[in-house]
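Diguanylate cyclase: structure tokens wanted.
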Amino acid sequence: MARRWAATLADTKGVTLPPEELEPLLLEVANEAAVHAGSRHDGALLRFSALYAASPMGIALADPDGDIVEANLALGQLLGCSPEKLRGRHLTDLGSTDHDVSRLKAGLEQVRTARERYQERMLLDHAEDGQLWTDVTLARLPGDKPGSVYPVLMVSDANELHLLQERLLHQNVHDPLTGLPNASSFTTKLEAALGAGARDDIALIYLDVDGFKVINDGLGAGVGDQVLRGVAGKLSAVFTGHHDGFVARLSGDGFAVLLRGELAATEVVTLVERALEDLNEPIYLGGHGIGVSASAGIVVRAAVEGGAAELLRAAEIALHRAKEAGKAQWMLFDPELDARDRGRYQLGAVIAGALENGEFSLVYQPTVRLARTEELAAVNAGLRWNHPEKGELSSDEFYPLAQTTGMTVPLGRWLLAESLAATARWHARFGDAAPDVCVRLPTRLAIDPDLVLLVKEQLDKHELPAKALRLCTDRDSVLDPGGEVLESFAVLSDLGAQLVLTISGSADLELIPQHRLPIRHVILSGPVVDALDADEPAEADIRHLTQLITRARELKLRVGAEGVRTHEQAARLRQLGVLAARGPFVADSATGDEVDELIARHPGS
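Answer:
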């Protein structure tokens, strides 16, 4: 090469330089270039070797077939063995499972043919600890010959990071107290079960622990938590293993179960009954044998019938019905009953608007003196809803709905204000012959702290004496645990209002001396009155009623009756000592104008 270049350089078109002089010069240039290139190559090789040895990342250099030629110390430490033991092994042998081996084979093939790099998180074998989560990178290094490739494996420890991610993921979809899947996880599972192409039957079960607050408040939150863990364990034991059973804790003491497959309602009910029976068995904690009861709502249907929201709503309604029916039992969702209830709920939702739009009016029931039925003793005022589509609705049809929607207080306030306004009108027209008005307040209004002020304001507004107002209550209100009803009524009695208690037996009557109630009137109601409607009342019924009236007289109470149907029944009541009564024997009800005419025909004394 030096001679060739010497000859070429010697031919300089007139400037002659002997080849023998050029050859040593060119050799010197070549040697110098070789020395320079060698020093750079050696420096790069030394730096690569130092980096390879000192790298905290595990590195394995392999031949074109994938057999490990060299492994650094970091890889040996990561896999729990010396680097020497890794030499000669194939890169794919490092995979811990068949799946990991397959992924390593696929990665090797890709870096040999097309990709510069292949990255994946996978399990590798650890010599002592079994399996290790790692982040693996396969790359290609150029070989000695053009087109040849040497694979290199780079590994970093991802075990702690992977376990942390798994733990965070588990916490995100599981309830920390019971370990069951949480509500979010349950919704995801349900939506997947109802997804496109679903052909299974679906059973959704909502379960709710009855009276859990008693356990939690009585024995402490710690015991309550242990009870919930016990409930979770029992539910899992019953349902897991049946029809891909999936049990979750939704919130508080509420649980849900999802079953799918070929399902019959009877089979699902059998499982639910077994679960409720198991929950009744006591759990012994801190010396206490704690047994719980639960209510369950069940929905069974084909997966293609509706979406998740509708299914969840149906289960919730069924659970609600089970609790209303007395708890500690299950209820199967009934589509026909649900259709009827939807109409009721729609009715309850528009009560507020109906009140504002003037759709409510007063309806009256006259109470007459039995000694002189032509005289009114009082008029009971109630509410009627003049619904634009459903017509006239009685209070029995909408008051339960008002209780649910929180409208009992506004309705009660309106009833009280309108009743006293009507009473003022009667006093203006009939003077002393005007009857008292009797109002039955809903319990929620009876315990309202503003009730006394409201009554006083209305009495003052209409310039009425307090004795013109009778307030009626019942056993449930008297036994209100907070005693707020009794406190309000005691203050109203001091103002002069007359208090009336509806009773159906001796136990109700004895509440008066027991609680020192400022009651002036009692109203007989229910079976004790109905018994006298027979052609020949039973002796026992007459004796019971006689004893009840005698006891009322001993307590210096005036006795009335409601629900009296016939004049014969009214006559029997009068003979036993009842002073006044109301019911169909006089008139079922009267509206505003009608009651004025009724008062005119039946003036009080």
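DSSP finds 25 helices and 21 strands in the chain. The first helix runs from residue 2 to 10.

Cheers.
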